[in-house]
Automatic annotation (TrEMBL):
The keyword Protease does not apply. Belongs to the D-isomer specific 2-hydroxyacid dehydrogenase family. Signal peptide: none annotated. Residues 27-319 form the D-isomer specific 2-hydroxyacid dehydrogenase catalytic domain. Keywords: Oxidoreductase. This is C-terminal binding protein. PANTHER family: 2-HYDROXYACID DEHYDROGENASE-RELATED (PTHR10996), GLYOXYLATE_HYDROXYPYRUVATE REDUCTASE B (PTHR10996:SF283). The lineage of its organism: Archaea, Methanobacteriati, Methanobacteriota, Stenosarchaea group, Halobacteria. InterPro entries: CtBP, D-isomer_2-hydroxyacid_DH, D-isomer_2_OHA_DH_cat_dom, D-isomer_DH_NAD-bd, NAD(P)-bd_dom_sf. Residues 114-288 form the D-isomer specific 2-hydroxyacid dehydrogenase NAD-binding domain.
């Protein structure tokens, strides 16, 4: 008998796992659904399981991995990022970590472009002004032409590449910084490779796609934001802590930048976050990933990874613990 623990997080659909594991695993499988949310809960609820399917809000620490070894064979992250999982500790304990890197590429790219356009075109101030009984184009000033702008992309993985394809239709100049992507790959998308300082210096608008690592935490700081203009928009669909939240708040308060479109925050869900509820910010609830199609793809792919691990096979979403980007 194999045992699989599923987080009760809404992105994880137990019915998909039941169907996939019933037909795709050689042994009988017991599936248990439990609320997680903390490393202590993982330790408490995860005893005696072969695989744990976890969520974005649940840290799986080295201590948790040690407490669940040697029974635990896999930690399956039901999404793209693995910043909440101690991958080196898992590797040391011979625990496979998987993710689903490609289920929402189009959705997140489209969401990032939507946030950029919403902020750039002053949609929120205009909507608020009309609701207040005003009818004036001046309520959205200043607005600059996107086709005359340079959009900087921080990280150039699959999502940023799809966004580059979408932004290319607007005629904007595109530049990107990603030390793990070759120049010719960026050139294939009509994007110029630049260093990090140049990215901040030349970008009229910035879209952040970077995962959260020790190297990217706080990468967009006060010094970076100071290089933008009062017409600039900053968008983040990567991870909240990649942008220094205090620096972003100061840049908005003093008019260093025009607006920010944020699908991710330093703390989720936010508790009295001063970036929420402002006229110059558009905040969505880490929903860039979502479409019904992406939801289905996510659950089928993650369930297939669980099945592979339980059958002693290499799952498609396995994380290489020696990967440079971790």
């Amino acid at each position: 008998m194999k045992r699989v623990l599923l987080s009760s997080f809404p992105m994880i659909d137990p019915d998909t796992y039941r169907a996939r594991l019933a037909e795709g695993v050689d042994d009988d499988v017991e599936i248990v659904v439990a609320e997680l949310g903390s490393a202590d809960r993982v330790i408490e609820a995860g005893q005696g399981f072969d695989a744990i399917v976890t969520d974005i809000n649940t840290p799986v620490t080295a201590e948790a991995i040690e407490a669940l070894s040697p029974e635990l064979d896999a930690i399956v992250r039901s999404s793209v990022g693995v910043d909440n999982i101690d991958v080196p500790a898992a590797a040391a304990a011979d625990v496979t970590v998987t993710r689903v890197p490609d289920y929402c590429t189009d959705e997140v790219a489209t969401h990032s472009v939507s946030l950029l356009l919403t902020c750039l075109r002053s949609m929120k101030p205009y909507d608020d002004a009309v609701a207040d009984g005003r009818w004036s184009w001046e309520d959205g000033r200043p607005i600059r032409r996107l086709s005359a702008s340079t959009v900087g992309l921080l990280s150039f993985g699959p999502i940023a590449r799809r966004a580059a394809e979408q932004l290319g239709g607007f005629g904007a100049e595109l530049i990107a910084h990603d030390p793990f992507v070759d120049d010719d790959v960026m050139a294939d998308y009509g994007v110029e490779t630049v260093g990090l300082d140049t990215l901040f210096e030349r970008s009229d608008h910035l879209a952040v796609y970077a995962p959260l690592t020790d190297a990217t935490r706080g990468m967009v700081d006060a010094d970076a934001l100071a290089r933008f203009s009062p017409d600039s928009v900053v968008v983040n669909v990567g991870r909240g802590p990649v942008i220094d939240a205090d620096a972003l708040l100061d840049a908005l308060d003093d008019g260093t930048i025009k607006a920010a479109g944020l699908d991710v925050l330093a703390e989720e869900p936010p508790k009295d976050d001063p970036l929420v509820g402002r006229e110059d910010t558009v905040v969505t609830p880490h929903a860039a990933w979502y479409s019904e199609d992406a939801y289905d793809d996510l659950n089928h792919s993650a369930a297939a990874d669980v099945a592979a691990v339980l059958n002693g096979e290499t799952p498609a979403g396995r994380i290489d613990p020696d990967a440079d980007w971790l």
